[in-house]
Specification:
The complex is a heterotrimer of chains A (389), B (189) and C (370).
Chain A lengths: L7 E8 L10 H15 L10 E4 L3 H4 L4 H5 L10 E4 L5 H14 L5 E9 L27 H16 L3 H14 L14 H6 L2 E4 L1 E2 L8 E10 H7 L4 E10 L13 H14 L4 H4 L2 E3 L5 H10 L8 H6 L16 H5 L3 H16 L14 E8 L4 E8 L1
Parallel strand pairs in A: 2-3, 2-4, 9-10
Antiparallel strand pairs in A: 1-7, 1-8, 4-7, 5-6, 8-11, 10-11
Helix pairs in contact in A: 4-14, 6-11
Chain B lengths: L1 H18 L40 H12 L3 E5 L6 E2 L5 E2 L4 E2 L2 E5 L2 E7 L1 E4 L5 E13 L6 E6 L12 E6 L12 E6 L2
Antiparallel strand pairs in B: 1-2, 1-5, 3-4, 6-8, 6-10, 7-8, 8-9, 10-11
Chain C lengths: L12 H16 L3 H4 L2 E5 L2 H4 L19 E4 L3 H13 L5 E8 L8 H5 L15 H15 L3 H15 L19 E3 L2 E2 L9 E8 L1 H7 L5 E9 L13 H14 L4 H4 L2 E3 L5 H10 L8 H6 L16 H5 L6 H14 L12 E7 L6 E8 L1
Parallel strand pairs in C: 1-2, 1-3, 8-9
Antiparallel strand pairs in C: 3-6, 4-5, 7-10, 9-10
Classes of the chains: A alpha/beta (389), B alpha+beta (189), C alpha/beta (370).
Chain lengths: 389, 189, 370
């Protein structure tokens, strides 16, 4: 893989509230986020040359080819429009999908929208997840989505002998960070005891280990270097992108380490010229649908050694005022998890932090380089972007 | 209709330019949250629909053979001679060497627990008192390869990673050629 | 590309795709594990019966633990994606995959219906084909084309497919008497029959391409566009999405006068009238003139600008999200001179076009040249 020729910047960002059940339709959620992103860049929809959408399973909405259904809300009327889909990785990946629209030189601008409306699915959005399991040899066992997280969490904890308390600490941190996020679903601080006392769903996963099911949308505007400099004095550059998909056969892999996240990170770091991630990256937004995942992904992003992430959390290194802030936004655990929108929310957070616009969430001191990461499928895909001011 | 829509848009350009906000901070996020009872009570109108999506998937060569093997009380894998790996579930190609698998391999119905969970929820999140114990079972002599199944005849706090287990099969006359022809894996004591 | 056929009961979708991948990599002379830097797959969950279907794609294309992504669209969109990835300068060789296992779907009608707007259209309880009926009626009315012209398209494409060994089993050339009306004026004869198959295409940057083949076929331009998803605000007479997509592709390819600069066209004919509508949108006929060109034999295999010499979806079989990739491959075969009995002599530049089917107003275009 070589270094791409053209530079691409994020010049605007917007997002809706994240809510358990939105009155807005998926189209309306997409519109609100897209309009905000355009407003923030003082652009009109006519200035957008292409649109890229990310949204997770159609089964949530009960609409086949839902990318087509959502396109008007995403501003794509009579424009080049496409939807990428890599499960939970879609939020960050849609920014990468938008990135190559502009980096290819074919378009000067691209509007990237991440939208999710999970609440349409009854009796509970989680039911739709049955169909992600293998149609022939897994579905007959009656699995629940949480099983795969529980199986992975178990392996990670046992391999490194991590006590549950250290993992639960991530939920405490992120839910507290989210008190400062205007989009947060139900901003509420929890104590460690709250997490540890919450209902066991599939051991070792307890209810408060899990980010809330959500409706919401995010959007960012990407522009080529020349156009970006005309739009804003402070473009935020996408300097590195990476993605990597492991084999479908997840039962043939050791789940204690997400090697596909590491591969994706290496790809993005190489493009961004990062040779020493813990030193050269100022903060990170790894994907945290469950609390242990933040730790798992910190290690996958090569920000610390394998098994070291829980210790860094316990030492306060990953707090907003720590040496390596992780999920200053409050992450999925704190803000909410409308799958594709949640990943893009992390890209938005990088944008706002790197421009000094994160308000009460602003990391103290000078931040220049950051990484956002999402994950998805059957513990399979890592999608990574490195951004710089 | 398509044409007039486009014409109307052009007339609005000037107006949009005037309203444009000069903001660099993120706006107040929009969104109207509903409560759980709002739909049932009719506070908000909704349309409901039950999809009819039915599929009959061809199991193909590899899984077809795997399922036929299960019906006969056997676990089947495949071997790639280039890397020497034995894969289960079987597949007609080795995904690492990208070449056709070379032989079918009859595997023992014993193995060890790679990882497990204790689940108090069903597929649609209904709570159950008696938990299921899903686990990834590494089948003996396959290279750390295995599949998802359930553990049985064991208490949740007795399960350990690395524990040795053996398949408990459904009665031969009742097997269907399904992963559920194995009832569960039980510890080898 | 594998053989297209009505059913493929002896292989799973993974095994079908593996076959196509092996053929493609052999044709390119590469080892995917070593040489392919990115893989772009195409699928829609409800055609597969699996949510987050992109989990299931990497192994059979040689992409395990490599950059693999899925575009929720037709394979031609994935070709455009691969093209963009290569143009960034970050990738040299990218593989594209698409497939159809339509025979695994017990009844596809409810799946099509699931794509309809759940609030405004679905409650009407109509079979999704009604949209094609509406469009066909509007198109015939505004252009003066007749149902007879649509039947001629069906005959042409079925006849062409008899010379195409990859096409699924032939169903006779002349539509039988007494066709069944599905949604006036659309009859069952006007609808391309479903088929199974898989296809993989390998794209490479210029230097890499010249190292691999003496005669690479070049992507000269790509375009794709979406008209309104709402039927009420969409142009039903013209395929505006195809017009916009072709303008983008032609601009990149430097094509000003399509009928003079293009020698072969493989365009979407999911419904018979769509071939005529798309031909006009692509500038292969003047507005409302496609049926005249058809009458004059221009679009026949031996004519001045053969359209769907492969037989199109009507003749080969309609392969859902793979159909655009079939169009691309057929144009490549034409430009290489390897199209055998359905070869268009002296083809230098070809256009491939796809439409995503009802209820969408979305499609893509690729221009290819020697």
């Amino acid at each position: 893989m070589m270094i791409p020729k053209k530079r691409v910047a994020v010049v605007g960002a917007g997002m809706t509230k994240f809510m358990r059940r939105a009155q807005e339709t998926g189209k309306e959620l997409a519109f609100e986020a897209a309009r905000q992103a355009l407003d923030s860049a003082e652009m009109r929809i006519q200035d957008i040359e292409s649109v890229a959408l990310g949204s997770a399973p159609d089964a949530f909405d009960g609409v086949h080819m839902k990318g087509e259904y959502l396109l008007d809300g995403a501003g794509a009327w009579q424009k080049p429009y496409s939807r990428s889909f890599v499960g939970g990785g879609s939020g960050v990946f849609s920014a990468i999908h938008g990135w190559w629209h502009v980096a290819s030189g074919l378009f000067d601008t691209c509007l990237v929208v991440g939208e999710e409306k999970m609440s349409s699915c009854l009796p509970h959005p989680q039911t739709a997840f049955l169909t992600i399991f293998d149609n022939m040899i897994e579905r007959p066992l009656g699995p629940n989505l949480i099983w795969i997280f529980a199986l992975e969490m178990q392996r990670y904890m046992q391999r490194h002998k991590i006590p549950k308390e250290q993992i639960a600490q991530v939920a405490v941190k992120n839910k507290r960070n989210a008190l400062d996020h205007p989009s947060a679903q139900i901003p509420q601080a929890f104590t460690l005891q709250d997490i540890m006392n919450s209902e066991v769903l599939a051991w070792p996963v307890q209810r408060l280990d899990i980010s809330p099911v959500s409706d919401g949308a995010c959007a960012v505007v990407l522009a080529s270097e020349d156009v970006a400099r005309k739009i804003t004095d402070s473009p935020v550059w996408i300097d590195g992108v990476g993605w990597n998909l492991d084999t479908t056969y997840w039962t043939n892999r050791d789940l204690y380490f997400p090697r596909y996240v590491a591969n994706a990170a290496r790809m993005a770091y190489r493009m961004a010229g990062i040779t020493n991630p813990p030193k050269q990256i100022d903060f990170a937004e790894p994907y945290d649908p469950f609390d242990y995942k933040e730790l798992h992904h910190m290690e996958g992003l090569l920000l610390c050694r394998k098994g070291e992430a829980p210790k860094l959390t316990a030492e306060g290194v990953t707090e907003r005022d720590g040496k390596l802030p992780i999920c200053p936004s409050g992450g999925l655990l704190g803000v909410g998890n409308p799958i594709a929108a949640a990943g893009l929310m992390k890209v938005c957070e990088l944008f706002w932090q790197l421009r000094g616009e994160a308000g009460k969430r602003q990391i103290p001191g000078d931040v220049r380089t950051a990484v956002a990461q999402a994950w998805g499928d059957l513990m399979q895909i890592g999608t990574v972007v490195v951004m710089r001011s | 209709m398509g044409r007039s829509h486009a014409d109307r848009n052009r007339g609005r350009d000037a107006l949009i330019g005037v309203i444009m906000l000069n903001k660099t901070m993120p706006n107040e996020p929009q969104g109207t949250g509903l409560k759980e009872g709002d739909l049932e009570s009719g506070k908000v109108l909704a349309v409901s629909y039950q999809p009819k999506a039915q599929y009959a998937w061809a199991t193909g060569i590899a899984i077809g053979r795997f399922l036929a093997g299960l019906k006969a009380g056997e676990i089947t894998g495949t071997r790639c001679d280039q890397c020497g790996r034995i894969a289960v579930p079987p597949r007609i190609f080795c995904e690492w060497c990208f070449r056709r698998s070379d032989t079918w391999v009859k595997l023992p119905d014993t193995g060890k627990v790679n990882t497990f969970s204790v689940s108090y929820i069903t597929t649609d999140t209904t709570r159950v008192k008696t938990p299921k114990i899903p686990a990834v079972i590494e089948i003996d002599s396959a290279n750390n390869a295995g599949f998802l199944h359930l553990l049985g005849e064991v208490k949740p706090d007795e399960v350990k990673l690395g524990m040795r287990v053996k398949a408990v099969w459904v009665d031969p006359t009742e097997r269907k050629g399904s992963i559920t022809d194995i009832k569960y894996f039980k510890p080898i004591r | 590309m594998t053989q297209l056929s009505r059913t493929t009961p002896e292989v799973s979708y993974k095994e079908l795709i593996f076959e196509a991948a092996v053929k493609a990599y052999a044709d390119a002379g590469i080892d995917p594990r070593r040489d392919v830097e990115s893989f772009v797959c195409s699928s829609e969950d409800f055609y597969e019966g699996t949510s987050i279907f992109d989990e299931y794609v990497p192994d059979q294309v040689g992409g395990a633990l490599k950059p693999v992504c899925t575009i929720s669209a037709d394979g031609m969109y994935s070709v455009a994606t691969a093209y963009m990835q290569i143009l960034t300068g970050a990738f040299d060789v990218v593989a594209v995959e698409a497939h159809s296992k339509a025979s695994d779907i017990v009844n596809i009608s409810p799946i099509y219906d699931l794509a309809l707007d759940p609030v405004y259209i679905r409650p009407l309880g109509l079979n999704a084909n009604f949209i094609a009926g509406l469009e066909m009626n509007a198109y015939l009315h505004s252009t003066g084309a007749t149902h007879g012209h649509c039947t001629s398209v069906v005959e042409k494409n079925r006849r062409n497919a008899l010379s195409n060994p990859v096409a699924m089993s032939a169903s006779g050339v002349t539509p039988r008497n007494g066709s069944k009306m599905l949604s006036y004026p659309l009859s069952d004869q006007d609808v391309a029959p479903l088929a199974d198959g898989a296809a993989v295409v390998v794209l490479a940057a210029e230097d890499a391409a010249r190292n691999l083949r003496k005669d690479p076929i070049w992507v000269m331009g790509t375009g794709w566009a979406s008209d309104s998803p709402s039927l009420e605000t969409r142009d039903l007479e013209k395929a505006t999405y195809a017009e916009l997509a072709s303008k983008q592709a032609y601009r990149q390819a430097g094509i000003r006068n399509p009928t003079h600069e293009i020698q072969v066209a493989e365009i979407d004919d999911t419904y018979s009238f769509k071939e005529l509508q798309h031909a006009e949108a692509l500038g292969l006929a003047g507005q409302s003139r496609a049926h005249r060109m058809l009458e004059q034999g221009v679009y026949e295999l031996g004519g001045a600008l053969p359209v769907n010499p492969s037989g199109g979806s009507i003749g080969m079989g309609h392969t859902l999200e793979m159909s655009g990739l079939v169009r691309v491959i057929e144009v490549v075969e034409q430009l290489r001179g390897t199209a055998g009995k359905h070869q268009v002599d002296g083809a230098q530049v070809g256009v491939a076009q796809t439409w995503r089917g009802v209820p969408t107003g979305s499609g893509a275009v690729v221009v290819l040249g020697r």
